[in-house]
């Protein structure tokens, strides 16, 4: 169905006096008609403040409430000869694209679209609006949530993100005061723009269970941040760190820090939900009394699930007494009103909930919520919104609309924000399908260098090869990283040798990490080399990412580096976890042979035989488990349910040593559900050293396949696997 756009466009340059910086780019403000009517004065003041910063503003009042209409208007403004937009903000009740068949563009979301309802198994994402290359087919509008519009990513579409403009959401939670909150927020933004400040204070936090709680990860992040904000280095303290283990209830320390008037940037890494930041687990203790109290709390929580049924209570008590050997009196207090209240308060204080935000005034200007679901802007209430719509000084937050992968690089080029880059530009370069800005995307700190206008050079010298090559010698690490990104955008895979050189030689963590990331886009021999080198990099994050790509690549040259790393004494806990997962990608015999080849030369191992047996056991377990999954898929008669489960498991564990069998199976399997699942599974072998086999299979199958849904999935897989020219 073709949707006709009915949008009122007001060119604010006609309404406001354009002054301040010279204008050469534009910015779109998309707002629903009710929000505009309720907050017209504040919206116009916001637009005027943006114009003062050198952006021509366009006001789009959405009368049609359909994503296609808005996207078409944004595309028209992006392709204008004069004042093309560089970004947009969506204020109020703007339609939410709910994307399907695009999970590979997210970091972690892999919910079964066939099993769960659409509102849960689709990804709310504004990449629909800001990546104009992506092509979608409209499916339907949700019957309960009228703002939800479902789309499928077309098989013929590009299958990777190349975001064209930056975007953000300004959406207060539903309630009687939502328009008052909107007006207050816009007034807060305008006030900041009249007196922008330098970024001089940074905080980072790590929560319970984040990155396997590896101390090396925290240590190296501090070094990386120090390099990214090197202009702040000196006698005065500017970087604070909080770990969940500092307090039993860390929320009070963290919330107190976030209230500091002089705090500018807060980078918060933890687990999360739509309405919660999960910070602490149960307190770890070596004291006998503390351990007993933890066990009692655990037992009460289990027994409480029995409710008032005496029979169920008896069964639960007997089960845990038998399993753990605990005395019956440790269950006491489960149904005592005072104990229930104490337990409830204790549990609530482990985390931050939206209820904690009432009356709270966070003052960190920019907050990164590196957590699952805290940016679920499609919900009536979402935690990130509580920060920006508070009466504190927080202007913008970055958060995720669904779950997010722990082993991504959340701090990528964050130092550019400290140098005055608009947060929208930063998010545009680092976002995935689920990552969004909540708040004003034109927000920027004052530049610490009067000669550096990073927003200007990013636009003015966008395609200037010479300029960006010169920036490889910048005094700022993240300017060097940005230069690598811009050179890659200009030259593509032709920049591969330069990227490998910088990866091998740069003293800066962030430059090496950016080079590594860009090499992953090349997927060439230089990337294979970088993976092998990266396993022993001095930056824990690069070690961790390299371990991930040992699994994703499957190149035989990785095996010696994998075994060598697993024999080291001082692996980060998270790196070790990823390395052990990578074992599944390779043949059991090849790994065993390499272990036998290396272990006698490891003079530092005190008990080589114990180490050999332990690692051999891990090799056997992981490779045999992968082989078992493959055998169950190939088994006759076929267990469809089990085969389907195993095929979906190989989206996470790419078993390259079994790829020939999996391709043959995909070619011959008759069951339609399994054939579709197998074809989709092959698309997750994007980085495989054997991906040309998948390309050949897809191209050959497309010539003979008659079923349209299978042809579509073959096309999508082919476009995922092929390297973009």
UniProtKB/TrEMBL annotation:
Database matches in SUPFAM superfamilies: ARM repeat (SSF48371)
InterPro entries: ARM-like, ARM-type_fold
Highest taxon, organism lineage: Bacteria
Gene3D superfamilies linked to this entry: Leucine-rich Repeat Variant (1.25.10.10)
PROSITE patterns registered for this protein in UniProt: PROKAR_LIPOPROTEIN (PS51257)
Name of the molecule in the record: HEAT repeat domain-containing protein
Lineage: Bacteria, Pseudomonadati, Bacteroidota, Bacteroidia, Marinilabiliales
């Amino acid at each position: 169905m073709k949707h006709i756009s009915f949008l009122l466009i007001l060119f604010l340059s006609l309404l406001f006096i354009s002054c301040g910086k010279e204008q050469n780019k534009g910015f779109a403000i998309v707002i629903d008609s009710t929000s505009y009517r309720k907050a017209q004065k504040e919206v116009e003041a916001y637009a005027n403040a943006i114009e003062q910063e050198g952006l021509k503003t366009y006001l789009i009042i959405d009368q049609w409430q359909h994503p296609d209409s808005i996207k078409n208007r944004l595309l028209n403004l992006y392709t204008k000869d004069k004042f093309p937009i560089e970004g947009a903000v969506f204020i109020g009740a703007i339609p939410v694209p709910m994307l399907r068949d695009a999970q590979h563009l997210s970091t972690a979301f892999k919910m079964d679209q066939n099993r769960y309802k659409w509102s849960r198994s689709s990804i709310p994402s504004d990449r629909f609006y800001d990546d104009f290359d992506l092509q979608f087919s409209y499916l339907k509008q949700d019957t309960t949530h009228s703002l939800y519009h479902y789309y499928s990513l077309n098989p013929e579409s590009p299958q990777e993100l190349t975001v064209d403009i930056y975007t953000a959401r300004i959406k207060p939670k539903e309630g009687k005061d939502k328009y008052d909150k909107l007006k207050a927020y816009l007034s807060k933004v305008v006030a900041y723009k009249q007196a922008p400040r330098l970024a001089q204070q940074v905080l980072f936090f790590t929560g319970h269970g984040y990155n396997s709680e590896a101390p090396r990860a925290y240590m190296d992040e501090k070094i990386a941040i120090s390099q990214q904000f090197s202009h702040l280095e000196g006698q005065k303290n500017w970087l604070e760190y909080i770990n969940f283990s500092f307090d039993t209830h860390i929320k009070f320390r963290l919330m107190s820090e976030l209230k500091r008037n002089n705090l500018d940037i807060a980078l918060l890494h933890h687990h999360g939900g739509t309405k919660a930041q999960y910070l602490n687990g149960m307190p770890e203790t070596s004291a006998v009394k503390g351990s007993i109290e933890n066990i009692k709390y655990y037992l009460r929580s289990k027994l409480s699930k029995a409710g008032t049924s005496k029979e169920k209570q008896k069964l639960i008590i007997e089960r845990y007494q038998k399993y753990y050997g605990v005395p019956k009196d440790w269950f006491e207090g489960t149904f005592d009103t005072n104990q229930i209240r104490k337990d409830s308060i204790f549990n609530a204080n482990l985390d931050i909930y939206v209820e904690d935000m009432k009356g709270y005034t966070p003052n960190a200007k920019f907050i990164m919520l590196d957590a699952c679901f805290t940016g679920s802007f499609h919900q009536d209430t979402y935690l990130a919104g509580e920060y920006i719509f508070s009466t504190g000084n927080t202007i913008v937050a970055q958060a995720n609309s669904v779950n997010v992968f722990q082993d991504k690089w959340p701090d990528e080029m964050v130092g550019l924000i400290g140098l005055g880059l608009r947060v929208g530009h930063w998010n545009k370069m680092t976002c995935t399908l689920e990552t969004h800005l909540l708040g004003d995307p034109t927000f920027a700190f004052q530049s610490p260098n009067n000669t550096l206008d990073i927003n200007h050079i990013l636009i003015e010298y966008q395609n200037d090869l010479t300029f960006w090559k010169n920036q490889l010698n910048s005094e700022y690490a993240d300017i060097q990283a940005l230069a690598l990104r811009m050179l890659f955008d200009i030259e593509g895979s032709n920049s591969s040798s330069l990227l490998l050189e910088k990866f091998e030689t740069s003293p800066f963590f962030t430059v090496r990490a950016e080079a590594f990331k860009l090499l992953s886009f090349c997927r060439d021999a230089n990337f294979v080399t970088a993976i092998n080198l990266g396993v022993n990099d001095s930056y824990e994050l690069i070690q961790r990412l390299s371990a991930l790509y040992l699994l994703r690549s499957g190149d035989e040259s990785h095996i010696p580096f994998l075994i060598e790393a697993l024999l080291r004494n001082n692996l980060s806990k998270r790196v070790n976890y990823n390395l052990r997962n990578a074992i599944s990608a390779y043949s059991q015999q090849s790994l065993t042979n390499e272990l036998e080849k290396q272990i006698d030369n490891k003079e530092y191992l005190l008990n080589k035989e114990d180490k050999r047996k332990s690692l051999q056991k891990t090799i056997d377990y992981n490779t045999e488990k992968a082989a078992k999954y493959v055998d169950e898929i190939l088994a006759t008669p076929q267990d469809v349910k089990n085969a389907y489960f195993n095929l979906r498991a190989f989206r996470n564990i790419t078993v390259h040593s079994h790829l020939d069998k999996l391709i043959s199976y995909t070619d011959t399997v008759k069951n339609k559900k399994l054939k579709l699942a197998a074809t989709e599974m092959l698309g997750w072998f994007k980085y495989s050293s054997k991906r040309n086999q998948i390309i050949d299979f897809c191209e050959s199958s497309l010539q003979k396949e008659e079923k349209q849904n299978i042809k579509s999935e073959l096309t999508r897989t082919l476009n995922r696997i092929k390297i973009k020219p």
